[in-house]
Amino acid sequence: MTTTPTQGAPRTGRRAPRLLPRLAAATAVVALALPLAACGSASAAPTEAAPPAPPRQQPGGHSLTADDVDTWLDGAIGSALQTTGIPGATVSVVSDGELLTAKGYGLADTGTEGGSARPVDPDDTLFRIGSISKVVSATAIMQLVERGDLDLDADVQQYLDFDLDTPKGPITLRHLLTHTAGFEEVIAGLIGTAGSEVPLREAVSAAPPEQVYEPGTTPAYSNYGATLAGYIAERVSGEPFAELLQQNVFEPAGMSSSSFEQPLPDDLDARLAKGYPDDSQPAYPTEVVNAAPAGAMTSSATDMARFMLAHLGDLPGDAALLGDDALAEMHRPALDADQLGTLAAGQRMDLGFFDDSTPGVPAFGHDGDTQVFHSAMRLFPDHDAGIFVSLNGSGRTPTASLDLRTTVLQGFADRYLRDEAGAPSRGGAGAVASDMDASDAEAPDGPAAADLAGTYLSSRSPVTNPGALLALSGQTVVVPRTDGTVAVTPKPLGVTTGVYEKIEPNLWREVGGDALLATRTDSGGDADDATVTAISWGASFTLLRAQPWQTASVVVPVALGSLVVLLASMIVWPATALARAGGRSTRRDPSRPDAAPRRKDRMLLLSRLGQASTLLALVGWAIVAVQAMSFAEVTATTLRVLQVLQVLGVLALVPAALVAWRAVRDRRGWAVVTGRVLVVAALAALATVAFVFRLIAPSVSF
Fold it and tell me: What string of H, E and C letters represents the secondary structure of 245-266?
């Protein structure tokens, strides 16, 4: 990023050339200040917000009757659709061994693409239920365990017909069903459109994710793990997965409107609701989930009521899907402190199900999301009740569908399972969380608020491939507060800050709520002053402490500052060349031939070509990141091309360093020297980012 002033030219011929290095130097100073200012602001002590108000709870003590539930649902869901922009919803409630009510709201087809609008019918309209498919798949797997065909604690390699690389340790079905097999996240190919279907074996064997955590120790939600478990069931049973579920789950339970088939049979496809970003936009194409056991199921609200009754043990005789012992095993935490360490103090996975208990109200269930369908199911075993809800749109705001589902699930528990004072109307103490009030007891031992301070990455992330770059967009910051609580931004499943208080040595609970965080330290929890390295939440997710060079507050400003430096260099390059050409033309001696290009000019050219290559790579990675987050296909060829451009940028460090050294040696002036040194620093910074976030890596499968 330099220009070469002409020596000995008349004063009037030097003014314009000198302006360019001054402009370049000023730009360089600004570029250097950007990351420093940003880092300084990131490290500044944040202003403490007041603890949040207690959560709004529905009045308790209501009788769980069809009339009362219908009235409540009309208000909770029916009136919310228009304000959220969600086209339609379907819901079913079971209680005391029977379907209490099933209702449909809004539209399954808005009619905006031609044809008539079609209302949602809870018995006839089908919805894609996303990851709730996992618990249905787990049910079929437990049937094989119950028959003795599968062993929950055996190395799964014995069931596979391909070699699965597990450098961190052997994997069992228990690991797969609890999201603790240790796999990094997989994004590519998860959701496609009609025609993109692949066989189940290909989905699990073509490009398995790397195992990056020791099995059983670090909850990391994994669609691949659930899909692999489904493939094992297919292999051992000898039946295609969709047919296995049809024969062993749907037919016995009387779920005649459910299927894992993709595409759906014609009779079911005609009943499928269309999915919408929101009620003002056209329908999204029918989604194909190639991780079929993890998310491909289609069902109706009344069919899901049958499934809930099955897991509450309320289906009679031949309709029962599992025996009492198998049901009990599925519905209790599947791992303990021997595997999870102190993370076992918080919520833990059952076999396929999330433990969603709150104080006094034991519960288990699962949520499910595709790009446009959003569902949730909760079962309350002590109350012999359950609720299922599904939406066919995301809504106008990023959290519209989540907020509506949360309102329905929490509202149901508050209204019908607690008394008027908010205590449980009947049932036990709950599977997790202490009812202890932190204000009424001495501070528990274990990590203090300061030990949690820092930036954390999600365990559900790509690690060994270019997808690792996405970790910059999903980081969590924990800040200790003067009152001994911690502020978590953003809080799990939210976009705002949550404040958490310590209630047990390694357990924190949201102030005014029931959400839990469990901690694990670098000493395994034995030392009170050890640094917290992991925070688990929601049973299958872990926040892992980030290293300084992984934090967005450092990486993003440095990368942006480096980008500004390279852009300035690219702008100065042609401007300087034109200015120098004009200067030479006025002084050129026709009797002397042009001198041969000097070697240092070739080095300068190589440096600038490397800078251009780096800029192109950065633009390409940004486009790829957007495509990946929207589940658009990104070809391996595209990623390899970007890697080549990135490597060229790294190699450009050599000529850039030589050019900078020569500028210093030849005393080219502070502006030239500063510009060329900043170019070296920018290339080095971006090369570091490329290696840290695996933009240059053998694998491009993410």
Answer: HHHHHHHHHCCCCCECCCCCCH
The DSSP H or E segment spanning 485 is none
Helix (H) or strand (E) holding 621: helix 599-629
How would residue 580 be classed by pLDDT, with cut points 50, 70 and 90?
low
Query: Which residues are paired to 572 by β-bridges?
Result: none
- For residues 266 and 274, give the distance between their C-alpha atoms in angstroms, rounded to a whole number: 15
Q: How much is the mean pLDDT over the chain?
A: 87
CA max distance for the chain: 107
Among 698, 559, 566, 682, residue whose Cα is nearest residue 639? 698
Mean pLDDT across the stretch 69-84? 96
pLDDT attached to residue 7 = 36
The set of long-range contacts for 152-157, using a CB threshold of 8 Å and a minimum separation of 24, is: 152/177, 152/351, 156/228, 156/232
Over residues 30-47, the mean pLDDT reads: 38
Q: Which of 478-482, 483-487, 586-590 has the lowest mean pLDDT?
A: 586-590
Q: What is the pLDDT of residues 399-413, one digit of tens each?
A: 999 999 999 999 999
Place of tokens 């250097």: 32
Taking the mean position of all CA atoms in its chain, how far away is CA 492? 11
Share of the chain above pLDDT 90, in %: 73
- Based on C-alpha coordinates, what's the Rg of the chain? 30
Q: Is the peptide bond before 252 cis (omega within 30 degrees of 0)?
A: no
226, pLDDT greater than 60: yes
Residue 3 is encoded by which pair of tokens?
């220009």
**CA angle, residues 545, 551, 553, in degrees to nearest 5:** 135
605-608 long-range contacts (CB < 8 A, ≥24 apart) are 606/652, 606/655, 607/652, 607/655, 607/656, 607/659, 607/679, 608/569, 608/570, 608/573
| Phi, psi torsion values for 390, nearest 5 degrees | -140, 145
* C-alpha separations of 115 from 107, 118, 270 in Å: 13, 9, 13
Please tell me the predicted confidence (pLDDT) of residue 156. 98
How do residues 110-167 score in pLDDT, each as one tens digit? 998 888 999 999 999 999 999 999 999 999 999 999 999 999 999 999 999 999 999 9
Whether residue 561 contacts residue 682, with contact meaning beta carbons closer than 8 Å, is answered with yes
Tell me if 401 sits within 8 A of 86, measured CB to CB. Answer: yes
Tokens of 476: 């969590």
Beta bridge partners of 119: 107
| Alpha carbons 612 and 608: distance in angstroms, whole number | 6
Residue 231 DSSP code: H
Q: Where are the alpha helices (DSSP H) in 331-473?
A: 337-340, 400-417, 449-452
For 193, other C-beta atoms within 10 Å of its C-beta total 13
Model confidence band, residue 199 (pLDDT cutoffs 50, 70, 90)? very high
| Six-digit token string for 611 | 């800078």
CA 645 to chain CA centroid, Å, is: 28
Q: So what's the pLDDT on residue 584?
A: 52
CB contact at 8 A, 221 and 354: no
Rounded Cα distance, 85 and 229, in Å: 37
**Cis amide leading into 265 (omega within 30):** no
Torsion sign, CA atoms 80, 84, 88, 94: negative
Say how far apart CA 506 and CA 500 lie, in whole Å.
12
Is the separation of the CB atoms in 88 and 108 below 8 Å?
A: yes
Both tokens assigned to 294: 């993890």
- What is the H or E stretch that residue 374 is in? strand 374-380
- pLDDT value of residue 193: 85
Residues 651 and 684 sit within 8 Å (Cβ to Cβ): no
